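Question (not urgent): is this output format expected?
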Amino acid sequence: MAVLLVCAIACTAGTTDRRTGERGFKIVILDDSLCPGRTTETQAGECYCRILEKMLEEKHGTVDVELVRAETGRDPSGHPSLLESATTSSPLKPGTDLYLISCGLNEAQNRYPADEFYNRLSAIVDTIEKQADATVILVTTPPLVDRPRASLPYALQTKRIGLSRDVPVVDLYTRFTTLESGWRHLYQDAVAPDAVYYQYPNRKGQELIARQVFQAITSLDILE
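Got this back:
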């Protein structure tokens, strides 16, 4: 059975949203593709969620920004994915102003049908847009380190959904694969870079993800 776990990231207490005068700006991140769901406290601090939180607080110090990361419980084979969890139980969280949605890594690893990926992700976006007064930003999965082109169909389908619904898309697949310095170093272990590669981007990769998402959020002026 799919289990949707929610992990709240602490934010500055006592601040007030400049737009409403009542509460802060709440971001919900639905993601099973960009950083591990189960981490130590140190590893959690290196996840793009925490890095993004700091970047937003530095720019919008008077706005109370709360990041919530929703993850999926899954067995070693990678199932159920976020798509399955969020379409069998509602992804909506009360009081959310912005949803960031990133999936595709599990689907690429398990060769999930790309058309079904499109249908399920579309359903999640439709649910949010119909039932919540919130902005949606889609984030494509970056390349799999061992099979980079396996991620491409899911990145393309994510972009297709964004275009058809006028939803902003952070295209991490293209950003990673067009880096002049290459992208595989963004998965390397810092201690044994020639021997160990990770399923998820390392600290440098997480920083790059945070910067790309930060740029997408600030470009919309939704925190002003």
